[in-house]
């Protein structure tokens, strides 16, 4: 049976939907992170600032490879950068809660992290290896059997060591890579597992230690929330430009002394 009230309501709904379409609006549309930061003109980037040379404090200023990268990313996107320093152990939670828009903090791409965040294409190779005493005979992971290795909490080095060494070596955690290296020099541990570029940088000036060959090739990426696929596409396009025009090679030369 025809109902004049229902018919009237239906016409009102149709009219409202039509008006929304005419205005270019979608009642179900939620603003994406890319739209938000574009409208605001600012992108908030989370950074641990405790992982030289990728990021660290120098004379009260946050500096490093990732800081240079983030500042250049913002410039090429036409956005101001708002850096926020976050303890690396909680940095993914900071991003997922919406308190930051990106993570640029030497974050190695791993399957476990990829379940929580959306990664850009890799911007640097972060192969895993170990710092060992100069007189050590350790050449491969199995040579650490029965030994103690130091790792920085929350890093890919910790995850890798627990997965690949935990069955035959003791894994000892540290709040900072610097503290682990000090214990290595004092012979309190037998090795420090981390990405090779960071190990080499932190061992400058340390004559009693050396770094193994790369044991497992890894890449570091910029992290975003899983739903931010449009932002990831923009970021990947800029990273491709940086690689093509030599900007990334320049960062390698500046912070690691190589152009690789």
Total E-strand runs: 15
CATH topology of the largest domain: D-Maltodextrin-Binding Protein, domain 2
Per CATH, which architecture of the largest domain? 3-Layer(aba) Sandwich
| Count of the separate structural domains | 2
* Strand-residue proportion: 15-25%
Distance between the termini: 77 Å
Write the layout of secondary structure elements.
Elements lengths: L3 H19 L10 H8 L1 E6 L2 E2 L3 E4 L2 E3 L1 H13 L2 E6 L5 H6 L5 E2 L7 H4 L3 E2 L4 E2 L2 E6 L14 E5 L3 H9 L5 E5 L2 H9 L5 E5 H7 L6 E3 L7 E2 L2 E2 L4 H16 L2 H10 L4
Parallel strand pairs: 1-5, 1-6, 10-11, 10-12
Antiparallel strand pairs: 2-3, 3-4, 7-15, 8-14, 9-12, 9-13
Describe what this molecule looks like in 3D.
- The longest helix is centred in the first third of the chain and has 19 residues, at 4-22.
- The protein contains 10 helices and 15 strands.
- The chain has 2 domains: 33-125 and 219-256, Periplasmic binding protein-like II (D-Maltodextrin-Binding Protein, domain 2, 3-Layer(aba) Sandwich); 128-211, Periplasmic binding protein-like II (D-Maltodextrin-Binding Protein, domain 2, 3-Layer(aba) Sandwich), CATH 3.40.190.
- The protein has helices at residues 4-22, 33-40, 65-77, 91-96, 111-114, 156-164, 177-185, 196-202, 229-244, 247-256, and strands at 42-47, 50-51, 55-58, 61-63, 80-85, 102-103, 118-119, 124-125, 128-133, 148-152, 170-174, 191-195, 209-211, 219-220, 223-224.
- It is elongated, with a radius of gyration of 24 Å.
